[in-house]
Amino acid sequence: MKFGVVVSEGPYTHQAADTAYHFVKAALDKGHEVPRVFFYHDGVNVSTRLSVPPQDERHIQKNWTELAKKKGLDLVVCIAAAQRRGLLDANEAQRQGKDADNIAEGFRISGLGQLIEMGIQTDRMVMFGD
Amino acid sequence: MSETKKFLYVNRKAPYGTIYALESLEVVLIGAAFDQDVTLAFLDDGVFQLTKGQDTGGIGVKNFSPTFRALGDYEVTKLYVEQESLEERGLAAEDLQAVTYEDEDDDWAEKPSIHIVSRAEMADIMADQDVVLSF
Fold first, then answer.
1. How does strand B109-112 pair with strand B100-103?
2. Which regions form coiled coils (chain A) (predicted)?
């Protein structure tokens, strides 16, 4: 089965990003496909490469980046939600005249159309949030 | 991408206080470009999103409630509001703003987009969907 996954709550405050991560891993291990994971609302905060959690805690962004690298996941961060919350890739930082960018490897910034497209192209859409 | 699916946007939260309602509406507007069969559901505190006379001046947040009235232009014409959620909050149909659309199959007659349905009917509407996005 093809699963589309949405993460709609921020890391550490809420378990959604962790549960989604475990769900995606388990689904892939069972032979299912996860063509895309879409980060929305505060879920976009998962994608910052500047997060530094204590060493004995899980590193949510790194978990996702490593899973994306290993399994070829498409991790999409909503551009409108990201810009509100100060998350920019290098292109957007330049376009907006900002002096830094902070999107971690394995994530890409794109539009809400990617969320709709994921709903059309997958068999089930699973949202992780409140 | 010629396939048409039934998309339901479930709005469960008040319009202000959190960003869910606004960012849900942003998905609806973008999603309209994809020519899907779109329905919006309003339940729990989500029914407050459609109340008339909203004034956000005191909290310094944009009042986005007029945007609902533009949904007809995006061919989003099915807004279902749960009766029990209204009653539990002391609200009635007349507390909601009028949202209408022009029906191109009926000589562009102006028709209401908002329909008040029971909790049981809402369950049937949800069961009938392909993709449910909950906000």
1. antiparallel
2. none
- How far is CA A34 from each of CA A19, A29, A81, B10, B135, rounded to the nearest angstrom? 15, 11, 22, 23, 22
Using CA coordinates, name the residue in chain A closest to B22: A41
Report yes or no: B78 and B117 within 8 Å, Cβ to Cβ. Answer: no
Tell me B96's DSSP state: B
Q: Please, which residues have CB within 8 angstroms of residue A92's CB and are 6 or more apart in sequence?
A: A79, A83, A98, A101, A109
CB–CB of B3 and A120 under 8 A?
yes
Longest CA span, chain A: 45
The answer to whether the CB of B99 falls within 8 A of the CB of B50 is: yes
Count: domains in chain A: 1
Q: What is the pLDDT, as a whole number, of residue A130?
A: 87
Quick one: closest CA in A to B26, which residue? A112
Segment A18-34, tens digit of pLDDT: 999 999 999 999 999 99
* pLDDT means over runs of 10, chain B (135 residues): 86 98 96 94 98 97 97 96 98 97 95 98 98 97
Domains and CATH numbers, chain B: 6-134 (3.40.1260.10)
The C-alpha of B107 sits at a distance from chain A's nearest C-alpha, in angstroms, of: 31
* CATH number of the domain within which A45 lies: 3.40.1260.10
- pLDDT at B3 (0 to 100): 76
What domain range includes position A36? 2-128
